[in-house]
Amino acid sequence: MKYTVSLEIALPRERVVQLLADPEQMPKWLRGLVVHEPLDGAHGQVGTRSRVVLKSGQQEFEAVETITRREPAVLQGIPQDVVVHFEREIVGKGMWSATRDHLSESGPERTLWVSENEYRFDGVVMRLVGLLMPGTFRKQSLRHMEDFKAFAEDGKDVRG
């Protein structure tokens, strides 16, 4: 299953990418985040593997995230015409996913965030979930992006 979601954020791209890359900010916008801890490497750096636990209702989902691309490596002084790339793979029980985020300037003090997502499922149950509920995955991705936008633009914290 593949899909793309996007939105525009009313902030300069450099500020947006710095907020996205800051692990201290993640609990404020990533709804349901219980744990995001590096197993090896430094947070956000290519090759770093992290344990991620998300909770939705009474269910918890645990996975390992691997950062596969971060360009440019330094998130200060990024030239206007450069697209910022954050990419990661997540492996959990019954699924593999890849997210390819692209952030570009869409105008003065505005950032366009495009997120390409791909999921693969193992086992009958997870394949059925993917077939019967593909919109759920898209809605969840967009909700995370909208939560980030509300946090970045207005300081809204999903924790309360």
Automatic annotation (TrEMBL):
Q: What's a Pfam family this protein contains?
A: Polyketide_cyc2
Superkingdom field: Bacteria
The molecule here is called Polyketide cyclase
Which organism does this sequence originate in?
Lentzea guizhouensis
